[in-house]
Design brief:
Elements (H helix, E strand, L loop, with lengths): L4 H13 L3 H14 L4 H16 L7 H25 L4 H13 L3 H14 L4 H13 L3 H18 L5 H15 L2
Length: about 180
């Protein structure tokens, strides 16, 4: 019997969350065979490839780790960019791409893509927080602080309190280093 696309996606996510990255990739690649133009499949593949890059085995050989890690990072970026290209109106696909750029320390690129997320949906508190963090890493503390304050206002107005802890932690870090 044919397993549905949603089941393969769910398996891929569950395997990833359990740290079973090879099995996660296998399930998500099966999902991609069913529908190569599924934005969700491409997003999940990108996230899983990024996790695999961070956990790439080195077998005692640092050069092998760098090679495998670079291969997975490239696949992660390709998958996330494909998800964005397939659904240009998807702010969530762009947010995953922005998070990828942030996690790979490409902060200017992350800010650029967070701006695209916010142009599509100004209410994405996580994108405001991510943009603030990227701006902070770029040494643009006043702009970062402004993003975080806007994120706090939006979170409180929408009663979405989930991201507040991280936002206050980021904002507190700037104040701490400034001596406020």
């Amino acid at each position: 019997s044919r397993i549905s696309l949603d089941v393969y996606i769910a398996l891929g996510v569950l395997y990833r969350e359990a740290g079973r990255l090879d099995e996660s990739l296998e399930a998500l690649l099966q999902a991609k065979k069913i529908n190569a133009e599924s934005v969700r499949v491409l997003q999940e593949l990108g996230i899983t490839y990024a996790a695999a890059a961070a956990a790439a085995p080195d077998g005692g050989d640092p050069a092998n780790y760098l090679k495998e890690s670079a291969r997975y990072f490239s696949k992660a970026e390709d998958s996330l960019q494909a998800a964005v290209a397939l659904n240009t109106g998807s702010w969530s696909a762009r947010e995953e791409l922005a998070n990828f750029y942030f996690d790979t320390e490409r902060f200017a690129k992350a800010v650029e893509v967070y701006d695209q997320v916010l142009a599509l949906n100004p209410g994405v508190t996580r994108a405001l927080n991510g943009k603030g963090a990227a701006l902070s890493w770029l040494g643009q503390e006043p702009a970062a602080e402004a993003m975080w304050k806007l994120a706090i206002e939006q979170a409180l107005a929408s009663e979405n309190y989930g991201p507040l802890g991280q936002i206050y932690q980021n904002l507190g870090g700037i104040n701490y280093y400034r001596g406020d």
